[in-house]
Write a structure and sequence with these properties.
Elements lengths: L7 H6 L2 E2 L8 E2 L10 E4 L3 E4 H10 L5 E4 L12 E4 L1 H10 L9 E3 H10 L11 H8 L3 H8 L7 E4 L3 E2 L1
Parallel strand pairs: 7-8
Antiparallel strand pairs: 1-2, 3-4, 5-6, 8-9
Helix pairs in contact: 5-6
Amino acid sequence: MAKPKADNRARFLQKFTMAGPNDCWLWTGKTINSGYGYFWVEGTKHMTAHRYAFLQAYGYLPTVVRHSCDVKLCVNPAHLLPGTSKDNSQDMASRHRMGGGNVKLTAAQVEEIRRRFVSGSHGRGGNRRQLALEFGVDSKHIWRIATGRAGDYRITDPKRGVA
């Protein structure tokens, strides 16, 4: 006889770290290549974790679920907003998140990331997520910065202008 599947809501609650009501609640479960949390619903379909959190909190799914905090791993319903693709694009443009190359960090921030970076296997055991949250960039950017990959961020320094 097949083992009964755990309740979706109970499983979901085990896959993120709940902090204060105004803090980001970071997804610790599986992620997809774009950096969003990934959740298996009802054992048969997948959904990004922030969309599932929105559905559970508000009872419906808009076309797009946006993050007011700009943290892809955040599932705090207080940070999630309904919207359209146009709203999401406007958010990205106004927050300099379009195309990866618009992420702006100072030279000092880049050096700090490189100094503090701890490597992990496929996001496990390292500190990419924590650094990404702290510096307001995607965890992939943290890895690229720390490992010296070029072209995925722009270093700005007020003394020198854009490097």
